[in-house]
Amino acid sequence: MASIATKAATETIIVTNKEIAKAFQFLGKIMELHGENPFKIRSYSNAYLTLRKLDRPLGEIPADELENIKGIGKAISGKIRELLETGRMATLEKYREKTPPGIQELLNVKGFGPKKIKAVWDELGIESAGELLYAVHENRLIDLKGFGKKTQDDLKVKLEYFLHSQNQFHFATLDGVGGPVLEKIRALLPKASVAYTGAMRRCCNTLERLEIMIGYDGPIDLLFDELLINRKLINPQLSDATIEHWPVRVYHFPLREFGSKQFRYTASDSFMEAFMERFPDLDFKGLTTEEDVFSKAGISPIAPEMREEGSIVQQAIDGVLPNLIEAADIKGVLHVHTTASDGLHTLREMAEHARDLGYAYIGITDHSKSAFYANGLQPQRVLEQMAEIDVLNTELAPFKILKGIESDILNDGSLDYEEELLRQFDFIIASVHSNLRMDEQKATERIIKAIENPYTTILGHPTGRLLLARPGYPLDHQKVIDACAANGVAIELNANPHRLDIDWRFLGEAMAKGVRIAVNPDAHSRDGILHIKYGIASARKGGLTREHCLNCLEVDDFMAL
Prior knowledge:
There is one protein chain. The chain has about 550 residues and is an alpha/beta fold. The chain folds into three domains: about 5-165, DNA polymerase beta, N-terminal domain-like (DNA polymerase, domain 1, Orthogonal Bundle); about 170-320, 2-Layer Sandwich (Beta Polymerase, domain 2), CATH 3.30.460; about 325-560, TIM Barrel, CATH 3.20.20.140. The protein has helices spanning about 15-35, 40-50, 65, 75-85, 90-95, 100-105, 115-125, 130-135, 150-165, 170-190, 200, 220-225, 260-265, 270-280, 290-295, 310-320, 345-355, 380-395, 420, 440-450, 475-485, 505-510, 530-540, 555-560; strands spanning about 5-10, 10-15, 170, 195, 205, 210-215, 230-235, 240-245, 245-255, 330-335, 360-365, 400-410, 425-430, 460, 490-495, 515-520. A seven-stranded parallel beta sheet has the order 10-11-12-13-14-15-16. A five-stranded mixed beta sheet has the order 4-6-9-8-7, with helices on both faces. Helix 19 links the parallel strand 12 (about 400-410) and strand 13. It starts with a strand and ends with a helix. Residues about 1-10 have low confidence and may be disordered.
């Protein structure tokens, strides 16, 4: 069901590679905080990088094989077995015990490292994110060694974003938990109507909880015995609880009211206010399906994802609702990384997997030479990869592999290869990966210069945001969209659930200017290709149509464009 299996009411067992990797990452940080041996810290940090790339479950790897993996060794292998068997690591717990909870929390603030945390802890007695933000507002960090006003101002933004993002979850995280839960409820209550509701059903990028609607003519107490703990009954038809450690809200109504209640609770406040304003006398109580609600109103059904803003109600009244993109409309997978840079699978493996998933083409876009942190490709390696693609295209035809690159946008807006090499690519995604602290004017000028490069095909993850971790650099979106329109450059909707960048709120403006959107998975593994579904969900929120999506084109049309 979830990635953490419950052992007892207050104890959990870590079972996934990702969670084990993060445990070593955190161990490295907390040891650095306490000034421990740099060699050990580096070994744990390297273990994190190694473990997160393994696609075979660690629990299935024999102990002797595990310790022979480069970067693991006997000591780290023993700690992995400890985590797998008990859910705890004694070494990590030792450091947790002597570190205040608030200081541990600060270790999760992106871009604020252990050394600086140690400085504010020792010099100012600060032990939480809230205390630190107060100190920033009081200008107490300016005279602290290693800080200064610029650092303090940057930290203020990071802390405000961090605190705002607490108790929030990525949609993909809760969807991964909620999908099996819905299946189990349907198995336990075969005569019930069961579905997501609220922000979950609107596919919001980030959420506070799972929300599940159950239409059933009878009690549902057995569900709470089977699935939930810490149940809080708010009223006879609404319960807040947890599924393992995940927050969930369960709505329960008679089956005959399912449509009415699902319509009501799916809607945002803004949407519902606009709907009631347009249809003040409409009685939509006691309806079995949502289609009945829209039929009574005399308008076409509005997709759940679009029930976010009130303006969509008028579009429905005017009969101009967009024909939203579907996952099946995507013909090709663009923005894919392989083992040539920082991917987990080879070129062949990524191509064959995309083909087996039913796609007609794949665009390989490993990192370019400036991305030293991701083993970016020097020109000779680019040419070697292109030769490999030629061979595979002959073998895998009619499936097509396109020669692409994710080229770093340098500080001055240029791409990081010479023109002679740029012209040999089938397409180029231009992305910013470094120097994210430019002000709006400089960041916008940098992006526009890259857009104006005649070899740029797609602007990758335009703001560089990481949901719940980093807000992204400031941009004048109007100018960026205008530049894309003028230069025939598409904008990426990066489907990685931690990015979902460009934000769905800008899609309408882009489409109005004739700018195509590429829904790209930014896949670093075979499973990463599946992230396209999260990009589609966000695209539907913004009203994206098939006609405006770049990779809904057949491969010949894509190449011609």
